[in-house]
Amino acid sequence: MKKFVLTFVLFVPLVLFAQENSISEMKKAVVCTACHGQEGNSANPEWPNIAGQHPKYFIKQLRDMKDSELRDAPTMKALVATLNEQDMDDLAVYYAKMPLAQGSTPPKFLNRGEQIYRGGDFAKRIAACIACHGPKGTGNAQAGFPVLSGQHAAYTVLQLNAFKDGKRKNDLNHIMQDISSRMSQDDMEAVAHYIEGLH
């Protein structure tokens, strides 16, 4: 009986602490839901799904949006200006727990999209996406490579063009700037639609 009471006494505060943390994270996420939805998946295809994203990558993007030299995102810059490091950590953990979106790939994009994603294009010196983002688009949490699986094709195309045009410069060793510079719009559309249906 004493063991039960002791276990109960020790366990209840942990549960309450976890609940308090969850409520705190939810309150901080209220502003995010306007664009990214209650479950981290946006209704507008030009805004990203953020559910299931790796915390390390998520936090880096928020930090970089504060610095317009690294990532030009005026709307987000105004919003993240009010966030401190703890806020960013809490939001990253909150959204990382949410399930990934599951989209589909239109048949006309399947062959070229799969070719670029899985094998790249040797003639155009386009590296395969799979090398960093994995066979199912789940990225690499430790390396800070993002989850792409289920991401809106329109948003992915916007980001590839941002890398290509120099509006976004926060990629590791300029990898994405280099790859996107070798891609045509058709290449971008194909691989973006392939990624949306990848899961």
Give the topology string: H per helix, E per strand. Answer: HHHHHHHHH
- DSSP summary, beta strand count: 0
Put simply, the count of helices is 9
Count of discrete domains: 2
Reading off the top of the CATH hierarchy, the class of the largest domain is best stated as: Mainly Alpha
Round the mean pLDDT to the nearest integer and report it.
91
Strand content: under 5%
Low-confidence stretches: 12-20
- Assigned CATH superfamily of the largest domain: Cytochrome c-like domain
Characterize the main sheet: none
| Secondary structural class | mainly alpha
What is the 3D shape? globular
Q: What's the helical proportion of residues?
A: 55-70%
